[in-house]
Write a structure and sequence with these properties.
This protein is α/β, with parallel strands linked by helices. It folds into two domains: 2-116, Alpha-Beta Plaits (2-Layer Sandwich); 119-327, 3-Layer(aba) Sandwich (Rossmann fold). The chain is built from ten helices and 14 strands. Helix 1 runs antiparallel to helix 2 (74-92). The chain is globular.
């Protein structure tokens, strides 16, 4: 099968926004390669290692590739991408950098599995390790928690700072027996991690049907069907709808208020539903919010405080921040 590959050279700051844009266009897959220069600081505190050879992408920049099956209106997609980058720069304040765009045709086997050779077992925190399903791995310690993962086309391999920050915050703050809601679950990795760490039940939500399918598959891989339910939802919209009016929908395994909510999404989206999160938490409940680039840190902090949260902790990795906030 032939695919059309759209490549854009951008900044690490703009990666998540552009990735989301590609998925909304219907991309069959998105790959992201960030700077591999010798000067780039890489977190090795939990024994992470980076097998991929260093690349020549300048510091702070990234190369993204999106794949579209035929038929596709490439000209329209490229023009729309240019306009989206202009909007990021002019209206949101995110610099997309050079934003140079190229296109070409590729065979499916050229991209569908090539990335797997670089995706190895990854130690995320003191206890959590992500193991790709196609890799073998021997735990290094008796209490190590192994997450089997095949992200497919969904966001969330655990390698991006926004995901690893969430997992580290979960390990530090999650108390056994709590109920959790994971907003923007992607591959389902955070929902699975929460159960591994002792959560009672988890409701994993995502607006992208591809992510819902991927999360369901990964939940099954980890034998957690009885503990994690996955649903298609625009943020916390499914909770507002209640359970009436849709006979085809399974009852929600977790209902608010809950003790912990985690969201690894864009800062702009986090700001949209802070009040909904506050209402969905028990008094004293915790909110782990990640996906926040450094230029949005103050805006998110002020939004949390205005909603009634107190800031418990901030976790940082490179230029990314995750907040742990507490409902008053």
């Amino acid at each position: 099968m032939r695919w059309h590959e759209i490549t854009i050279h951008t900044t690490e700051e703009a990666v998540e926004m552009i990735s989301n844009y590609f998925h909304e266009l219907g991309a069959g897959g998105v790959s992201i390669e960030e700077s591999g220069t010798l000067n780039k600081e890489r977190d090795t505190s939990f024994g992470q290692w980076y097998e991929k050879p260093l690349n020549d992408i300048p510091e702070g920049e990234a190369e993204m590739k999106a794949y579209f099956a035929e038929p596709v209106d490439l000209e329209s997609h490229v023009q729309g991408l240019r306009e989206f980058c202009d909007m990021l720069r002019d209206e949101i304040g995110i610099d997309p950098g050079r934003a140079t765009i190229t296109v070409r045709e590729v065979d499916e086997e050229d991209w569908a599995n090539a990335w797997k050779q670089y995706y190895k077992p990854l130690r995320i925190s003191d206890r959590l390790t992500i193991k790709p399903t196609w890799e073998t791995y021997v735990p290094e310690r008796s209490d190590e928690l192994i997450i089997e993962l095949d992200p497919g086309m969904a966001f969330g391999t655990g390698t991006h700072p926004t995901t690893s920050l969430c997992m580290q915050a979960l390990e530090k703050t999650l108390k056994p027996g709590v109920n959790v809601i994971d907003v923007g679950t992607g591959s389902g990795v955070l929902a699975i991690a929460a159960v591994k760490l002792g959560a009672n039940r988890v409701l994993a939500l995502d607006l992208d049907p591809i992510a819902v399918t991927s999360a369901l598959e990964n939940v099954k891989l980890n034998d957690m069907e009885s503990r994690v339910s996955v649903a298609l939802s625009d943020l916390l919209g499914i909770l507002r709808q209640g359970e009436g009016g849709d006979s085809d929908r399974e009852p929600l395994a977790v209902k608010p208020p809950v003790e912990l909510i985690v969201a690894n999404i864009l800062a702009e989206i986090i700001l949209l539903f802070i009040d909904d999160v506050y209402e969905a938490l028990v008094p004293g409940g915790l909110y782990i919010a990640s996906g926040i680039y450094k230029n949005k840190e103050e805006a998110v902090e002020q939004g949390l405080l205005a909603a009634g949260f107190s800031i418990v902790e901030k976790h940082r990795d490179q230029d990314w921040i995750a907040f742990v906030a507490k409902k008053g």
